[in-house]
Write a structure and sequence with these properties.
Layout: E1 5-9, H1 13-24, E2 28-32, H2 36-55, H3 61-69, E3 71-74, E4 85-88, H4 94-104, E5 113-116, H5 123-127, E6 136-141, E7 150-155, H6 161-173, E8 177-181, H7 189-205, H8 211-222, H9 228-235, H10 237-251, H11 260-267, E9 280-281, E10 288-289
Helix pairs in contact: 1-2, 7-9, 7-10, 10-11
Bound molecules: acetoacetyl-coenzyme A (CAA).
Length: 291
């Protein structure tokens, strides 16, 4: 099956990154967000990201213009009617995602494939909300999407093999490498990464080390490109908490219990970089630890 046009639902950091890499690979892209202002801001962010690459001679001005020309803002799901693939990248909340799938599916042509960029939620369960579970699968990108090489692919119980093969080939055209995961809570990357981040938050909570000590320890002691608390802020603390809750609920093992300090930060609305405050305060020139 040929993919020419991709619909992206959600204009947050992940949705915009997905739109950018699809457009850069030559696909037509329509991006939708429930808040039209976010779509506008998201496309401006993609423009700024491409401009930075032109400035550092990593991209030509022509390639930047071509990428941008492939992206349009969709104001409703009717504009997805000619999409060959729709990738949902809304907030990591099963209720929200279910509502989106129920709303979008009636507008899609029957052969359109639906993918979810969920970080943790059961693909089989999400597929059941679409009425076309055989044309549904997990397509999980990493943040920042234009930089990270990996895409995790997850089949639901009903995913058609030709659909899987089509998406596998599609991901390769984006220049990504694939890891295939079975449909279990948080798949591979987040099953391993998020408990590590949660443990770093426990390490802070129990006073074993400060924010700076923990991040320095893991950057210089384990060669991680970002410390775990910096990375938590980068991913978004709400997403980190959602993934831990899915692991805890889905695997029923106390080793996945979300750290109370993570819960407290989320309750405070300190969600990380996107709101300029999390384990660091990003409102000034340089990030300052908040504990
Ligand atoms: N968006 C787009 N491009 C970005 C970017 C962003 N947010 N941040 C950095 N970049 C680009 C830069 O433009 C630069 O590109 P060029 O080499 O083409 O110039 C490149 O990335 C390197 O950037 P920098 O030199 O400024 O910064 P760095 O060397 O410190 O690298 C990083 C930045 C790539 C983000 C690095 O810190 C890193 O790898 N961090 C870990 C990221 C990670 O673990 N991601 C996975 C999160 S888990 C996940 O996503 C799954 C989930 O479901 C929660």
């Amino acid at each position: 099956m040929k993919i020419s046009k991709v619909g992206v639902i959600g204009a947050g950091q992940m949705g915009c990154g997905i739109a950018q890499v699809c457009a850069a690979a030559g696909y037509k892209v329509a991006i939708y967000d429930a808040a039209p202002d976010r779509t506008k801001a998201g496309i401006a962010g993609i423009d700024a990201s491409l401009a930075r690459r032109v400035k550092s001679s990593k991209l030509t001005e022509e390639a930047r213009a071509a990428t941008l020309s492939h992206i349009t803002a969709a104001s409703d799901f009717a504009q997805f009617s000619d999409c060959d693939l729709v990738i949902e990248s809304a907030t990591e909340n099963e209720g929200v995602k279910r509502q989106i799938f129920e709303a979008v599916t009636p507008h899609l042509k029957s052969e359109c494939i639906i993918g979810s960029n969920t970080s943790s939620i059961s693909i089989t369960r999400l597929a059941a909300t679409t009425g076309r579970p055989e044309r549904f699968m997990g397509i999980h990108f990493m943040n920042p999407v234009p930089v990270m090489e990996l895409v995790e692919l997850i089949r639901g119980i009903a995913t058609d093999e030709t659909v899987f093969k089509t998406i596998q080939a599609f991901a390769l055209t984006l220049g990504k490498t694939i890891a295939i995961s079975e449909d279990y809570p948080a798949f591979i990357v987040n099953r391993i990464l998020l408990p590590m981040i949660n443990e770093a938050i426990y390490t802070l909570y129990e006073g074993v080390g400060s924010v700076t000590a923990i991040d320095t320890a893991m950057k210089l002691g384990a060669h991680h490109p970002m410390g775990p608390l910096e990375l938590a802020d980068f991913i978004g603390l709400d997403t980190c908490l959602s993934v831990m809750q899915v692991l805890h609920d889905g695997l029923a093992d106390s080793k996945y219990r979300p750290c109370p300090l993570l819960v407290k930060y989320v309750e405070a609305g300190w969600l990380g970089r996107k709101v300029k405050r999390g384990f660091y305060d990003y409102r000034g020139e340089t990030p300052v630890p908040t504990r």
